[in-house]
Amino acid sequence: MNIKKTxxxxxxxxTGLNAGLFFAFHxxxxxxxxxxxxxxxxxxxxxxxxxILNPVFLSNFIGPAIVWPIATYLHRGEPTRFKLLLAASLLxxxxxxxxxxxxxxxxxxxxxQFSLQSSTPQQxxxxxxxxxxxxxxxxxxxxxxxxxxxxxxxxxxxxxxSAHSSASRQKxx
Amino acid sequence: xxxxxxxxxxxxTLTGLSAGLxxxxxxxxxxxxxxxxxIGHIAMMQEINVKIVNPVFLLSYFGPCLLLPLAAxxxxxxxxxxxxxxxxxxxxxxxxxxxHTRNIPLNDQLATYDASRLSEVDADQIRKKFQGPxxxxxxxxxxxTLAAIVATTIVFIVCLS
Lengths: 173, 161
Hints:
- The structure holds 2 protein chains of 2 kinds.
- In chain A, helix 2 (about 40-50) crosses helix 5.
- Chain A is mainly alpha-helical.
- Chain A has 5 helices and no strands.
- Chain B is mainly alpha-helical.
- Chain B contains 6 helices and no strands.
- Chain B has helices at about 5-35, 40-50, 55-75, 80-110, 120-130, 135-160.
- The interface between A and B is large, with 50 and 50 residues.
């Protein structure tokens, strides 16, 4: 394992964990939360948004935005891989990191400032409506971007395997 | 791109999604549930356990059980073969096996409670016994999460080698 392979492996595993995390929201948490009353929905979403801000999540989320460009740069001498990794980097930085920072985080901040105690039931319903739909839609976008980023990175590695395995098969044949 | 590669890319991606899904519980969902009242925690976990059984989840969860052994067979006789067997065993036994024999029976036990009829004191005890730090559910959850992360890493390193 040299520095090229190490950065690439690290970026891919971290991307995989982020992809699966957003995927978990899409397939399990969001559907479960749909059944909640407006009051419980807001309490639960506020709890998740504050619990997720911990060193493990943050380093794993910010990590790929730093490691992807490094891994891509280190592969500048291999044209096929470089193109795939550049696309993976852009997908993560724009589609996952960018979308989260520009769309989901401002919605989370808006929700965090909302006080359930000092609001009427109508205000609570209005808050949920303003938050839930847009947040879920942006979650679909960042989930899709990170899954494609993961696919591209595995594909980028295969681009060397194809030469390797056909060579080893010719040898064995 | 040939068939071997497609199996490896899809198998690896699905294994990675499973790993990240379990990681989401460790890093965000369970810590958030612990911050709620006992009744809320139990009701939410019951609802998640019902909603998670859907075709998309099942694809990411059972997909690697077929694709990783298939990849191992396709790479038979090549240096990658042994590693793919290890990744397949990790997913089939360490993730799916552990979930079915350890976590699901505990989830089924939790499903028997009617959260709305529990007192706050009882609910708090039940949730601590179910998903408090160091409980069997948590230990096996950490185990399956690590198994899935290691399996994903192995598949990726196989692709790189």
